[in-house]
């Protein structure tokens, strides 16, 4: 297969160019929480399903993150899939140096002491089964034990460095087509 004449030349892959390329991939925005003193929580776009038999999910976390010390010891974590209206919640859990669980964040203590955020599209309580350190991140593998999901709603997405949702894109496409 030949490339079109106007396609750009390949460039060397490094951390910065990979980050730029991955901005083209839309990801569901999640918040991961873990019990501790203090409890930990952070926004992640790296959540994915790994296996269905047995059910295993994963997410990644920078080893320099303020949440890593708690996550590195946690036996259970909460994974919350954010709804499209939860941009501020995503920003709160992406902000360093603040109490992410302070008001206006609404949450309760769930099973195994894991903080469960209110109003999310879905949440999973997961038992951590492994942590694999790769480069400057850890891949956390976890087995869902409990879950709850809404029957309606649209997920919050992260694409090209900003929060987005499916309805915005659908409305924009509908206006262009009309």
From TrEMBL:
The biological processes this protein is annotated with in GO are: pyrimidine nucleobase catabolic process
Spell out the Pfam families in the cross-references: Flavin_Reduct
Instruction: Outline the extent of the Flavin reductase like domain.
Output: 22-165
* Cleavable signal peptide: none
GO terms (molecular function) for this protein are: FMN binding; riboflavin reductase (NADPH) activity
Keyword Thylakoid tagged: no
List the InterPro entries.
Answer: Flavin_Rdtase-like_dom, NADH-dep_flavin_reductase, Split_barrel_FMN-bd
Keywords carried by this UniProt record:
Oxidoreductase
Q: What name is this protein filed under?
A: NADH-FMN oxidoreductase RutF, flavin reductase (DIM6/NTAB) family
